[in-house]
Amino acid sequence: MALTPFIKGGEGDLNTMGLKIYLNGKLVDRDKAVVSVFDHGLLYGDGVFEGIRSYDGIIFKLKEHIERLFQSAHTLMLEIPLSKKELERAVVETLKANRLENSYIRLVVTRGEGDLGLDPRKCRKACLFIITDKIMLYPKDYYEKGLKLITVPTVRNHPEALNPQLKTLNYLNNILAKIEANNSGFDEAILLNAQGYVTECTGENIFFIKNGALWTPPPYVGILRGITREVVMRIARRLGFTVLEEPFTRHELYTADEVFLTGTAAEIVPVSMIDNRLIDENCPGKLTARLMAEFKKTIPREGVRYKAKG
Ligand code: PXG
User: Fold this and answer.
1) In terms of domains, do 251 and 131 share one?
2) Is residue 200 within 6 Å of ligand 1 at its C-beta?
3) Beta carbon of 227 within 6 Å of any ligand 1 atom
4) Is residue 168 within 6 Å of ligand 1 at its C-beta?
5) Is residue 306 assigned to a domain?
6) Are 236 and 257 in contact (CB under 8 A)?
7) Cβ distance 302 to 247 under 8 Å?
């Protein structure tokens, strides 16, 4: 998890012991949802995942998340044991079993059980599980006052080493960056690539606004092609912004009019300060606030509908 969320109660079972987990075709109790210590997801981080959200009985951009999961798995030559349609149904079934209308959904596929060597050919069958839980919301303060970011020494993974476009179970690059931000007392980290260009934060994409144009780094600098990022770029174009996917350095961020981050859990969250440079004292800025409002409106329209209760 990138930023620090709060768990919202009031729905489902507050005691997570009642939670049902989808594990390899079955809905099992939380304490029965266990995987082998020989699973290569655990031994090597060999696997893929998605973090998804549902809002009032609509799974936001479910098809896009499933598509990205399949694309990450394709590059890793990891065979997902369900079709896209079956996976969609499994997500809905898990939400229904837990009677969750507003939920955080974690979809995980690991290489499965193998031996202690790293050769994936030893893993006969992938392991698939789905956790649905109460939604975790970020503190209201983040949206009203903005985040304080710091660029960290850890460099974003080089795309030719482990492409950040793959959402794999190996998140150590991001975790190191998060530790560095924590140690410095900042809310979140900005990772640069080896050439010094801005990439993204530990679990969010980054945008800035300057003279009415919206900028965000292109995927080739080394970022996850965020689904929220795509939605925000589309909304911005519709609102008449010039949207630029071009590499930029920290200087462009320091001198921006407004900066914000996007992600499934965070949605759109404004940034007030970067490396102790004040970005925007009226946080969120006018244009960020407009995008935040428009984003809220798109949520009910873009997803897979389900009935959690009854
Ligand atoms: N960059 C990185 C490195 C991410 O991990 C994003 C950008 C934003 O992508 P989406 O598609 O969400 O707009 C992410 C997403 C979690 C969690 O629980 C992480 C993400 C999303 C949801 C939950 O850690 N990261």
Assistant:
1) no
2) yes
3) yes
4) no
5) no
6) no
7) no
CATH code, domain carrying 81: 3.30.470.10
Q: Is the CB of 199 under 6 A from ligand 1?
A: no
Q: Given this model, what pLDDT does residue 309 score?
A: 82
Prediction pTM value:
0.94
**Is the residue at 184 inside a domain?**
yes
CA-nearest residue for atom 22, ligand 1, is 51
| pLDDT of amino acid 13 | 44
Cα–Cα distance for residue pair 10/3, rounded to 1 Å: 22
- Tell me, yes or no, whether 249 lies in a domain: yes
Q: Which of 264, 291, 298 to mutate to test the pocket of ligand 1 (most atoms within 8 A of CB)?
A: 264
Q: How far is CA 31 from CA 16, 23, 133, in A?
A: 10, 12, 15
Average confidence (pLDDT) per 10 residues, the chain, 310 residues: 52 64 98 97 98 97 98 98 98 97 97 97 98 90 96 98 98 98 98 98 98 97 98 98 98 98 97 97 95 94 89
pLDDT of residue 136: 79
Catalytic residue among 134, 167, 210, 307: 167
One domain for residues 281 and 148: yes
Is 167 an annotated catalytic residue?
Answer: yes
CA of 92 to the centre of ligand 1 (A): 21
Instruction: Give residue for tokens 């994409």.
Output: 205
Domain region containing 82: 8-135
Number of structural domains found in the chain: 2
Question: What helix, strand, coil percent values describe the chain, rounded to 5?
Answer: 30, 30, 40
